[in-house]
Amino acid sequence: MKRAWLFTVAMLFAARSAATDVVNLAAPVASVRMGMQQVTRAATTETAQDGVAQRRYTFQPAAQPQIAVTPVQGSWSWQGQGELRLRVQDAMPWAVTLVVDIDGADAKSHLHAVVGLPAGPAQTLVVPLHATSPLAFGMQAGPPMPFDDQGRRLLVATTVEGTLDLSVVRAVRLSMPAPQAAQSVFFGKLDVVAGETALHRAYAGVVDRYGQYTRARWPEKIADDAALRVAAQQAPPAAPTAGEDGYGGRLDVRLQKTGWFHTQKSGNRWWLVTPEGHAFFSLGVNAVAADGGRSYVQGREFMFTGLPPDGSAWAPFWGTGDNRNAQQGAGADRCCDHGRWFDFYAANLYRVDGRDWVATWRTRTLARLKGWGFNTLGNWSDPALGVMRRLPYTRSVNVEGVFGNVATGYDWWGRMPDPFDPRFAQAADAAAMKATQGVRDDSWLLGYFADNELAWAAPEPQGRWALAIGTLHGEARSDAKQAFIAELKKKYGTPDRLAAAWGISLPAWDALQATNFQAPEPGETHPAIAADYSAWLRRYADQYFHVVSQAIHRHDPHHLFLGGRFAASTPEAIAACAEYCDVASFNVYADVPGHGFDAAAMHKFGKPVLITEFHFGSDDRGPFGKGVVSVWDEAQRGKAYGTFVAAAAANPDIVGAHWFDYVDQPVTGRLLDGENSHIGLVGITDIPFAGFVETVRKANLEVRHAALP
């Protein structure tokens, strides 16, 4: 009896003490079980450079080799604890991926984190014991890991998924996703601690007074105002002018002269044509503006060091905003999306040029773009730059107002506008009137875009039909829904014929009127569903592009309608765009243009294509994000740029490509949605990334002066 009682006390003590000292994986204790699947453990410990004992575990080639650490009896209670910490060291000369899963009482109680474990000395892996992500700190990408925390290397899992009842924890599992060869890792002590010290410190003080990341160095990083002025004021290379007309058109390709930018096909190749009648391949940059360095400070002041006071000379660079209502899929669940912000980029321009910084910046920026071989100001650029008439420019028709909408389920930037609502036509007319004001007679204007990245489709397998399904899912008062129902009535006559064709129960037409009507997904057994949805998608797109096209040309009969900047699209939307637009525009995030849109289909439609967004990002110049299309480092960015624009110019249907964007996004995220990537031509300090822009310049000049086939 006495021995049984002592054993019970010992086990209770082990379970209770596990809240602060779960197990040392270098020397496992009897109170825990070490289950290993396709993992081998070294027979003895090894001593690291810091004198700490640790043990080698080797993950064998398998689908998911793993170590499961569980209590011998019962479960652990981690109530009041905030972080799991594990001493770990990559034993390989390359980085490996480590997956940490923490299992609770049932399948619903579970935390999951994936971390990249770099080669090098030992560090402490920290997993917060609750769901978190960089969005919880106001940005889309978190700071690089590991980081030096007062002499300690901390590797914090900044993204953790799931929920966990800390009163019942049954296992900690360490695994690797399908290693192709044996991978070894050293493990040591694993414990849990109260608070979230490491998570907080991962984000603390990451931005200096210039808006630069504090924990890294790179060639363009500056330390003081004097260095900033010298670097930012360096003269760009001279702009190329030989063999070009005043707008940048090729003198060796003479086409029709109209006095306005237009399109023309010569032989097998489409061209934009300058007002003077010369071929023009548009190489542009988006968001050439001085307000891109704004980032929210309120609610996360601990991230910033050296911010100037909100007053005196710095008052113009402080402001307030609110992006809570504007967010849809982009930046949803983000903290710190309203309140006081600071504009790092504009403040740095003031440091460089003083009171006249705006005018000086405009002159310097235009000189840079021309010197780097660009010939177009892309979307969202400072309107004053276009008025200066040194580069052709574009304008955006943003249709906003009170009118109906349709949800596709993707809705990244908001729901689809309902073009059947009469109020949409009114809003389109008002937007076109605003966009054309003062520029309709300007020959330097290339043309107009309409909206941006509308949710024509959703990403899932049946996403092509999302707009049709969403239309029928809406309320009866939806003008789009009523138009769709009218089309179905016209085709089928009676509800039973539609029901038979779609394989559904439909006792009366009124059943379609119901809010949240569950429209069927297309399938092989009922091909009429896909046919009817396709017809509706074309009707919807026709209505949208027809209304917008009429509005633009009503207020400006001279300039081009450059399309809707497709991200998600359907064949039906692209066909409608080709009918009503002068140019079809696509935002293409891929290695080459042909991997981002259906080039063969566009060729059949017989309309030119403009690539209106592309970029390549890396994380070695400050901002944490690597953009939509990431490459390994800064040198690779330049190579990727050259490959992309060369491929664009080689396609006879493509008439230009526009880079996104001019300035790096703020380290802590832009106001709109927290994007914080290194994708700029210049940094937040307005210093060009010299190696990158030189590669860009050479690629641009090669495209602009390339020999014709």
What does this 3D model show about the protein?
With 709 residues, this protein is an alpha+beta fold. Among the domains are: 22-203, Galactose-binding lectin (Jelly Rolls, Sandwich), CATH 2.60.120; 391-564, no CATH class. Strands 1, 3, 4, 5, 7, 10, 11, 12 and 15 form a 9-stranded mixed sheet that branches. A 6-stranded antiparallel sheet has the order 2-6-14-8-9-13, with no helix packed on it. It has a 5-stranded parallel sheet with strand order 24-20-32-31-30. Helix 4 crosses helix 5 and helix 7 (422-436) crosses helix 11. The radius of gyration is 29 Å and the shape is globular. The N and C termini lie far apart (95 Å). Residues 1-19 form the signal peptide. This is Beta-agarase. Keywords: Signal. It comes from Dyella agri.
User: Which segments are poorly predicted (pLDDT under 50) over 5 or more consecutive residues?
Assistant: 1-21
Count of extended strands: 32
- Looking at CATH, the homologous superfamily of one domain is Galactose-binding lectin
Shape category: globular
Rounded to the nearest angstrom, the distance between the terminal CA atoms is 95 Å
CATH topology of one domain: Jelly Rolls
Treating each run of at least 4 consecutive H or I residues as one helix, how many helices?
A: 15
CATH top level of one domain is Mainly Beta
Q: What would you call the structural class?
A: alpha+beta
